[in-house]
Amino acid sequence: MAKIALPTTPTPDEASKAWTRGFAAAVRDAAGDSARLTPKKAAGMEGIYADNARNYFERTGRSWATADTVIDSGARYVRRETEKAAGADQKLSLVDIRKLPADLQDDMLTLRGKAPSKPANDPKVVAPSPALTAAVAASEIPSINDYGKYMGVDVYPKTMSRAEILRKVVGYDDLTDAEIGEWFSSVKGSAAVADLAGSFKEIGAEEKENWDDDRGVQHERIFSDVAEGLGAQFIPVSKFKSVELAEHFIQEDGDCEYRLLIGKQKDDSWLVFSYSNFPF
């Protein structure tokens, strides 16, 4: 186990800097004298940072990248995710760490001197798929985000309830379980995946019509890739204990919406795709 590099409840800044130091050392070692990392070199990496290096190439589709490029990408990723997972006190507790994406949870636990949360090859647990992760990453562009559309793929521990996940997504901690439950309609099973995937294909077609330049085609491809990624991630639904599409449309604001595809894992943890749309 790695030497403890973090205090008991680190800030996102402390956690991301400690992680980036370790990731940078691992990437530079794998890159070698050329200072270039390739998918083949990443595949040969071992240790807690290996999956992050491999995920970079799966997400970007690149055939090589400089070590500094991979490190900078990882640094932005870990800072964004640790800031998102931290509570109002901006401290990362063990509970907060388990809100991180799957490829960061065990890294942070190890840096804390804790045992990994579960074996990386646990057959009961469905990891975030490279296809969906890459599609979501591709949506992180101003011409989508600046118009109120956001997507995410998150892993939540089995200690969290469905209601807690819904409250976290909408940001209303004061709602009771019953109240937050009333916010959302529900479709379950394979129909849930088909409904959301179909919606994204429709959104993609609308985006193509709404933009009179190359961004329209780009957006259509992004939403189509997300739709396909949802199928790759959640079908067959038998991989999970349950799969549910939870949707909330804010009536007074017309188009404002939350859509969550919630997969309850066979170990009772959660894999959740979320989409929010708050047009200006």
How would you describe this protein?
The protein is α+β, with helices and mostly antiparallel strands and 280 residues long. It has two domains: 12-111, no CATH class; 130-194 and 232-277, no CATH class. It is built from twelve helices and seven strands. Strands 3-7-6-5-4 form a five-stranded antiparallel sheet, sandwiched between helices. Strand 6 (257-264) and strand 7 form a beta hairpin. Helix 3 (50-60) crosses helix 7 (130-138), helix 7 runs antiparallel to helix 12 (214-234) and helix 9 crosses helix 10 (177-183). The protein is globular and about 55 Å long. The chain starts with 11 loop residues before the first helix and ends with a strand. The relative contact order is 0.12. The mean pLDDT is 87.
Compact description:
The chain is an alpha+beta fold and 280 residues long. The protein folds into two domains: 12-111, no CATH class; 130-194 and 232-277, no CATH class.
Which residues sit in consecutive blocks of at least 5 with pLDDT less than 50? none
Report helical residue fraction. 40-55%
Total number of beta strands = 7
N-to-C CA distance: 49 Å
Described by the principal axes of the CA atoms, the overall outline is globular
In percent, how much strand structure appears in the residues?
Answer: 5-15%
Please give the order of strands in the largest beta sheet.
Answer: 3-7-6-5-4
Secondary structure elements and their pairing?
Blueprint: H1 12-31, E1 36-37, H2 39-43, H3 50-60, E2 65-66, H4 67-85, H5 94-97, H6 102-111, H7 130-138, H8 142-145, E3 149-156, H9 162-170, H10 177-183, E4 185-188, H11 190-210, H12 214-234, E5 242-249, E6 257-264, E7 270-277
Antiparallel strand pairs: 1-2, 3-7, 4-5, 5-6, 6-7
Helix pairs in contact: 1-4, 3-7, 7-12, 9-10, 11-12
